[in-house]
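During the first year of the project, the team set up a workflow for recording each protein of interest as an amino acid sequence followed immediately by a discrete structure-token representation. This format lets reviewers and collaborators read both layers of information side by side without switching files. As required by the reporting guidelines, we include two representative entries from the current panel. The first entry is reproduced here exactly as it appears in our internal archive.
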Amino acid sequence: MSWDEAFGNRYEEWSAHMTADVSFYVGLARQADGPLVELAIGNGRVAIPVAQATGRRGIGLDTSPTMLKQAAARAAEAGVELDLREADMRNLTLVEPAALIYCPFRALLHLPTWADRRRTFERVAASLRPNGRFAWNAFAFDHRIAVDLDGEHHDEPVPHRIRYSVADNRIDITLDDGAKSSLWWATKNEWLGLLDVSGLELEALYGGFSGELLADDSREYVFVAQHRASVHP
């Protein structure tokens, strides 16, 4: 995972614009009959509304102590309980299989290699109960946006600079205070390949959180998958 702990000090500002995904993941959680697990829970931005909507104590994993501390404080303020664990999604292990595992805000893109993602997907598949779902979102790389952003300084949502390493499929986000976060993008077929090798099967692929069809100009992948053994014609 590529993440400076100092980035967490500006995470609330950085993520403030991302609100459309909350109702999407809440909707999936309401349909889930069993444990709920969020990978890369961050400050609890999604997990807290999920807990409020379902009345259940979700499990949240993150490798960042800073993020987990923020999530605990925000959950206490909201009056909900979360089972927060400092753990790596690549080593996901659950005592009780989950009904829903989800990973919002493109957090799977912090995994740098195909092997890292494959291991994560395999651990997710092994951790789902029959009819369980795995849901996540990731941006669709747009070279036109990259041209506009690469190397430029931006003041919003916090002062930062973005650099693209096209050969490595990597984006480096560096805040003005030096905190850095890196993301490695993936194509639609790469995501579908991860489902195939891990024993998961695609249920739905949207171009947005309102269930929009994926189009040529869609800039977001929103995936919902199930364990292959639980999918029926």
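The second entry, processed by the same pipeline in the following quarter, appears below.
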Amino acid sequence: ALAAPCGNACPAGNDVAGFLCAISSEGVEAATRILDATQPLPSVCGRVCPGFCMDECNRAAFDGPVNIRALERWTGDRRADPPATPEPAANPLRVAIAGGGPAGIAAAHALALRGHRAVIFEEGPALGGLLRTGIPSYRLPPEALARDLSRLLALGVEIRTGQRVTASDVPAHLSRFDAVIAATGLAGSSVLGCPGSDLPGVEDGLAFLARAKEGLEPPISGPVLVVGGGNTALDCARSALRLGAGKVTVAYRRGRGDMPALAEEVEDALG
């Protein structure tokens, strides 16, 4: 049978239709078992996923798409522990994963569910990557991320923080592990590349968001200009307002309809 359009649109490969039917007929724990097969971060994705599944929902032609993202968030927040039971592996492998962001977390989750031993090497002090440093708390509360990560640890995934893995480290890791997965995430931020971009007061958006989550010193005051029209730009604009900016202006090179940020984020920023 062909998968439902919503399921086909999900980059994580979630069984969206099965998950929704399980909520309706069997309850949270049944829906959880379906999500667990493909999704290590339901509380997170239920908050920050772009919702490609909802764009393709058949109900859109009648009375509007099912709010799949909200239902995933609701399920992730209310599910009970423990997590899914791993399958026994005929030949258990030990795999090193370089990077503890979403890709590394997903790789460790998939391996652990199939009975393999995953060890995540994370350069920072904690797992999460940009989920931890690049998404404001009003969109992704720290407790939601912690709740999802606790289930990953309960599967037996080992975490080694404060350890950066470079290309030169891979041969040594291969002597101790059966495989190495590179999940190093965002390589670097875009730069303006125009005169004045290195002046005092000009700051990279992701660096600003990381500082905002840690507590800005000194605090913001006066007008702020945000260059860009993606989700990071909107997160910076909304965070700046929350942190004391007198006025925030978002400058984008194309029209408002071309902005890559989520439409709801744009509306919330304007509101």
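For the second entry, the following points were noted during internal review. Residues 58 and 140 are 28 Å apart (CA to CA). Strands lie at 94-98, 117-122, 158-161, 179-182, 223-227, 247-251. Both points are flagged for discussion at the upcoming steering committee meeting.
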